[in-house]
Amino acid sequence: MHSDAANFQLNSHLSTLANIHKIYHTLNRLNLTEDISQDEHQTGNLRSCSSSDCFSKAMPPRKKRRPTAGDDLSAKKSRHDRKHESSRIKTEEEFSSKRCLEWFYEYAGSDDVVGPEGMEKFCEDIGVEPENVVMLVLAWKLDAQNMGYFTLQEWLKGMGTLQCDTTEKLRNSLDYLRSVLNEPTNFKLIYRYAFDFAREKDQRSLDINTAKCMLGLLLGKTWPLFPVFNQFLEQSKYKVINKDQWCNVLEFSRTISLDLSNYDEDGAWPVLLDEFVEWYKERQMS
User: Fold this and answer.
1) Backbone phi, then psi, for 200, in 5-degree steps?
2) I want to staple 53 with a disulfide (CB 3.0 to 4.6 A). Which of 4, 49, 127, 173 is the partner?
3) Are 25 and 53 in contact (CB under 8 A)?
C-alpha cells in the first residue's frame, strides 16, 4: 500500500515536470524565456502584463530584410524601364529620317518629287499661302532648285537642317523662318537665291512679270519706293531683268534716299536704274 502511494506521487511529479518542460519549450519558441527568467529571478513568479505588452514581446521588432538577388534584378529592371521610357520620349521629340520620308511621300505620292498639286496640299496643311514669303525662305533652307517643286533629296536635307519631320513641327518653325529675313546678311542671300530659284533654267534672265512678283514679295513691305518702281517696270520697255540688275535693285533700295537726292548718275548703276530715276523725277516735276 505504501509502495502504490509512492508510485502515484512519483508519476504525479513526472507529469508536472513534463508539463513544465512543454511550457518552457513553447515560451522559448516565442522568445520569452529570457524575459520570464529575468522576471522570475527578480520576483520569483510570473508578473502580469497588458495585452499590448504581451503582443510586443510575442512579436519582436522585425529586422530589416536583406535584399535578395531577385530584388536587385527587379530594381535594375525598374531603373532600366524608366530609362527606356525617358529615351523613348526623347526619341519621339528628335528628328526621324524615316518619319520625314513618310511625310514627304504624303505629298509626292509615288514620285520622288513634290510637284504643284502636292505643293498646294502641303501649303494648305502648314497654313501658308504659296505666294507667302515664308515659302521662299523654306525653299532657300531646302536649297530647292525649281520653283514649285521639292525633290526627295532637297526635302530630307533641308528638313533635317530644320529638324522638322512632321507638319506640326514645321508649323512651329514658321516664325523662325520669317525671322530669318530680319538679318541683313541672310536677307541678301535669300534675295540673290530668289533670282535663280524663280527663273526658267534655260534662261539667264528673269521674265519681267516674275521679277515684279518676286520683288513685291521681298521688297514690297520694306521699300517705300517699291510701288513707284513697280509702275516704272510696267510701263517700261523691259521684258526681262538680268542678275546684275536684280542685285543692284536691292542695293539701290538700301542706300538711296526716298527723294533720290544721293543718287549718283555717274555711278556704276545699271541703265535700268538710271532710267527709273529720270522717269521718277519727271513725274515729280509735272
Assistant:
1) -70, 135
2) 49
3) no
For 114-161, the pLDDT digits (tens) are: 999 999 999 999 999 999 999 999 999 999 999 999 999 999 999 999
Pairing, β 113-114 against β 150-151: antiparallel
* The three grid cell numbers given for residue 250, joined into one nine-digit string: 536691292
pLDDT one-digit tens code per residue, 17-50: 445 544 544 445 445 444 434 444 444 443 333 4
Share of the chain above pLDDT 70, in %: 67
